[in-house]
Amino acid sequence: MRIAEARVIVTCPGRNFVTLKIITDEGATGVGDATLNGRELAVASYLREHVVPALLGRDPAMIEDTWQYLYQGAYWRRGPVTMSAIAAVDMALWDIKGKVAGLPVYQLLGGRSRAGVTVYGHANAETVDEVLVEVGRYVDMGYRAVRVQTGVPGLTTTYGVGGDRMFYEPADAAIATEVEWSTERYLAAVPPVFARVRDEFGPHLRLLHDVHHRLTPIEAARLGRSLEPYALTWLEDPVRAELQEGFRLIRQHTTTPLAVGEVFNTIWDCQRLISEQLIDYIRTSVVHAGGLTHLRRIFDFASLYHVRSGSHGATDLSPVSLAAALHLDISIPNFGLQEYMRHTRATDTAFPHTYRFEAGYLHPAEEPGLGVDLDEQVAAQYPYQPAALPVNRLEDRTIHSW
Ligand code: EZ4
Ligand code: CO
To answer: Measured from the CA of 339, which atom of ligand 1 is nearest?
Structure first.
């Protein structure tokens, strides 16, 4: 069997997605997600110009060799554009391998290790009173874990709090919207929110919070310590992680578990964080960290150091990514949690899939392959629309991490 064709499809059913569809000379097809939020066309071009020509005629069964060919063979390594492109090829080849074998991909990865994939949803609202209602909605839907974000008094905008509560979407303007930030106001606002949520929902609901890379290590240490009474499952992206050793300082001061990695692209981006046991959950995703082949390598490495998976699963990761992640989540020994932001109806229509949510768990597809496709006729009705992530500034207008 040979790869006969590979199509790069850019579509905007509710938001932008880049999808690679690989077709073999025997008619088998596989899909992979290549979406990089706000930088979609860079990956589409990398695939079209540099990857697709090299795929034609290759044996689709040679997944590891193809991964190494695209990674080592390019000479230029790592980075979100490269690794998202490689990820799309990798996902599509696992999809084809499953279809050829007649097995869902999780069976190829060693089979089921648990009853279902525990997911967390996003509760967000301006005020504490409103966010309690949102958390309650998730509890009523069966969720066992909820991420909680509220507005910060004195700031007009806050990360994670948006117009639509269930379908919050930060990439909302062709040219980046500017938002504002104050670390002092934020650090004062967050602990009382979790005091109220714990008080209302008791000790068993798992609670999470995303700092979105906005603090310094000592500020994050203080936040982690102030949240200890509320027993968070994790505090996410407390600081930017280019400086991995910065996490040592946070670790020395708090027992609040730490999660990081949604912007990481390779195992080397998290090597020290994992091997020095500076984090508790690694949040690399199947699309931005090189596909199932590389993500499995990261999670296996993490398992040596008591670090569990916590894959990124925001709406900018297409249903193809979510479908692929679930096959890994259900099979690995050190699964932690899977993020699950629901896609809009338009997105779900463009990407027919059979994974399903039930009682707080997502269940991967049971049919051969990944169990997801892109309906190209539906996709053609939704042309690409430029959309950038916001840019963040302090009150004095200094640029800050968004
Ligand atoms: O801001 O995926 O945990 N989830 C997140 C996401 C990210 C977006 C960026 O594209 O932090 O909402
Ligand atoms: Co995050």
So the answer is: 3
